[in-house]
Design a protein that fits this description.
alpha+beta, T-fold, nine-stranded mixed β-sheet, 7 helices, 31% helix, binds adenosine monophosphate, binds magnesium ion
Length: 333
């Protein structure tokens, strides 16, 4: 599998000015960085440490692959259920359902059995049989996950159903980190978890944070564009993050629940919005919906912008955005 140069995150960011304290950890299977500006180094380091501890705590709840996680317990017991869950997991599942509704079912956490099948084939680089996919697709429909807020329970109406929060968990982790930083009195910070970003306040003196969006089909240094953000999130889903090529076709990790196959149409879909959970879920869902329907879904959420990258017939890329960006065509949803 030729991962390089596509494997690394799309986003670079610039913040090399004085007075910025940063910390980095490997969490959520990626490199997570937090930069804080405008406070003493000691105060910044305490806040960064608290934010990372919070992410570590929560990531244990959402780990699909850890049989001891709360999510795994739900996957074991929700059929026939009901199974009582923490308020935290319940609210993430509720957000997942809202994002499914906004994206007309393209984002669907019950896609887990099909995603697991695809992921099991990544090391050999061979797509699964259509019959295997079809069989597992019958388990996929988020409407068969019943959430009962009165007693905080979850049940699945189909045996074999499972949920995977991989398309939204990083957004939730970023939200927790931002919350902790604010509790520690931080007003200006940039959270960058594997290229997905939340900007808190500004870089300094009302100068916004600058986020470079990298070219998904070029080397690491090539940028598509740079955007300025304050108090917004920038999340990208793309076909270059995990993939293999078989018979000249790229098979990646974002699965269209309508077909059971990797979604076609976009190279990447970037969402710029207020809430990181929505940014993460919408990026995944809109990527699946494609360059025509994705933007329409994104605009259902207030204060939301997007950048879409499509592949052209000649193997190049076409970039469009809801924002006014130099050199990029403006696209209305
Ligand atoms: P992201 O990189 O945020 O787009 O998330 C990709 C991850 O989301 C995959 O690795 C899967 O775990 C999960 N996923 C794949 N397809 C879907 C889908 N249709 N709906 C929700 N989650 C998905
Ligand atoms: Mg996502």
């Amino acid at each position: 599998m030729n991962k390089w140069p596509y494997l690394l995150p799309l986003l670079l960011f610039f913040s090399g000015c004085a007075g910025i304290t940063s910390g980095t950890r490997n969490l959520l299977n990626t490199s997570c960085e937090i930069k804080v500006s405008g406070v003493s180094r000691g105060k910044a380091l305490r806040a960064i440490d608290a934010a990372f501890r919070e992410v570590e705590r929560a990531s244990a709840i959402f780990n699909f692959y850890d049989s001891k996680s709360e999510l795994s317990r739900v996957n074991r017991l929700a059929y026939p259920g009901p199974v009582r869950v923490s308020a935290e997991l319940f609210s993430v599942l509720e957000d997942a359902v809202k994002i499914s509704e906004i994206t007309d079912g393209a984002f669907d956490v019950s896609i887990a059995p099909v995603v697991s099948l695809w992921k099991s084939r990544f090391s050999e680089g061979l797509p699964p049989q259509t019959s295997e996919i079809r069989q597992l697709l019958s388990l996929v429909d988020y409407r068969n996950m019943v959430l009962n807020r009165n007693d905080m329970t979850v049940s699945f109406t189909k045996k074999g159903m499972r949920v995977d929060l991989g398309g939204i968990a990083k957004g939730y982790a970023v939200k927790l980190a931002a919350g902790r930083l604010r509790e520690y009195g931080i007003r200006n910070a940039l959270i960058n978890f594997g290229g997905d970003i939340q900007a808190i306040g500004s870089r300094r003196n009302d100068t916004p944070w600058k986020v470079g969006i990298r070219h998904p089909r070029s080397n690491r240094e090539t940028l598509l564009t740079t955007i300025e953000v304050s108090d917004r999130c920038v999340f990208t889903s793309g076909d270059y993050e995990r993939f293999f090529i078989f018979n000249g076709i790229r098979y990646h990790h974002i699965i269209d629940p309508k077909t059971g196959y990797p979604a076609r149409g976009c190279v990447s879909f970037t969402i710029i919005t207020d809430d990181p959970v929505y940014a993460d879920g919408l990026a995944t869902g809109c990527f699946i919906l494609g360059p025509v329907n994705g933007p329409a879904s994104a605009k259902r959420v207030p204060h939301t912008d997007f950048i879409v990258v499509e592949e052209t017939d000649k193997g190049g890329v076409r970039v469009s955005s809801s924002m006014n960006l130099p050199g990029i065509s403006k696209k209305s949803p």
